[in-house]
Design brief:
about 210 residues, alpha+beta, three-stranded antiparallel sheet, 7 helices, disordered N terminus, disordered C terminus
């Protein structure tokens, strides 16, 4: 039997089913990847799991702002782990998957190396090494731009497109992790609130004229 997870308003005992253990913490509200490329969601998970209980922190947070910030970081980490479990089954890292998605959205014209770097969801040190590995796997090709021969353009290959197509279905299911336990209305509210958070933070200038990611 898995240990009980205390939530605000009382205690709730989790059912005796397999879960994910990361650093000693049981994750009750994250989709579980199976070898048959399917996801299952816990139907009896607690409606709410306080961050203080989740990370087993005894002292209270300094204020609500600190709790909100850490909640975003913690939740993003759990979602990132779930998605990583999917793409790594295909032999690529989450950062490499992100690069492939960006280049698919760019089309056959491709994008300059630095533009790819600037559009990554998570900053990845060494964009050149990242592209080196993708090119070695024949998922990406690089070519000199014309007329500026100093600029290197990155283009996704047919093999790269085929790999993304195979991953699209399971990634779509993994995307549900971000809204696990939320109604459609609550998901829209979450999107709106996160938009407000991002809008209030300093961001690098967006590159004009680059097509959206698909």
């Amino acid at each position: 039997m898995l240990p009980a997870v205390r939530v605000r308003g009382g205690a709730s005992a989790l059912p005796p089913v397999a879960g994910v253990n990361t650093g000693g913490y049981y994750i009750p509200a994250v989709c579980i990847y199976s070898p048959v490329n399917s996801f299952s969601f816990r139907t009896s998970m607690p409606e709410r799991l306080a961050l203080q209980d989740d990370i087993r922190q005894k002292s209270p947070f300094r204020n609500t702002a600190e709790e909100a910030t850490l909640s975003i970081v913690r939740t993003a980490t759990l979602i990132r782990r779930a998605v990583a479990g999917v793409v790594e089954q295909a032999g690529i890292s989450p950062a490499q998957y992100n690069v492939l998605r960006i280049l698919r959205g760019a089309g056959q014209g491709g994008l300059p190396t630095l533009t790819v770097r600037d559009r990554l969801i998570d900053e990845a040190p060494g964009i050149t090494r990242l592209l080196d590995r993708l090119e070695a796997a024949e998922l990406v090709r690089r070519e000199r731009s014309t007329p500026d021969r100093r600029q290197v353009m990155c283009v996704i290959t047919a093999q790269g497109l085929a790999l993304l197509k195979k991953l699209d279905v399971v990634i779509s299911n993994a995307d549900e992790t971000g809204g696990a336990g939320l109604t459609d209305k609550e998901q829209l509210q979450l999107v709106t609130l996160l938009e407000k958070v991002r809008a209030s933070m300093p961001r690098p200038s967006a590159k004009a004229g680059t097509p959206p990611t698909k």
